[in-house]
Amino acid sequence: MKLEDKLFQDRYIVDEEHPHLKIKDPAACLNCEAKQCTQICPSEVYTWEEDHIDVAYGDCLECGTCRVACAEFNNIEWRYPRGGFGVMFKFG
Length: 92
Ligand code: SF4
Ligand code: SF4
Known about the structure:
The strands form 3 sheets. Strands 1-6 form a two-stranded antiparallel ribbon. It has a two-stranded antiparallel sheet with strand order 2-5. By secondary structure, the protein is α+β, with helices and mostly antiparallel strands. It contains 3 helices and 6 strands, in the order H-E-E-H-E-E-H-E-E. The longest helix has 7 residues, at 3-9. It has helices at 3-9, 37-40, 65-69; strands spanning 11-13, 21-23, 46-49, 52-55, 76-78, 86-88. The structure holds iron/sulfur cluster (SF4) (2 copies). One iron/sulfur cluster binds next to loops.
């Protein structure tokens, strides 16, 4: 089964009031040449839009990889969603 098909099976309850992911300093991303967050996220949450990173946090799988990937600038504020929100995985 392709990754896209697996992701399609997951369900998300998005916390519109309290996003659990945030770019701390958008200006710092201008100095980040690799922009590895846009490459490493399995759910393609981060995209570069002309002059800033767009964060589609509602698609987050809560794997934590982006925190590690942004180690040089430590520019991603990351926490688990509040109780009752976030991803629900479907197995099988
Ligand atoms: S890896 Fe970090 S610093 Fe670089 S573009 Fe992404 S969020 Fe910004
Ligand atoms: S925690 Fe994982 S799925 Fe969520 S934005 Fe970071 S890399 Fe993407």
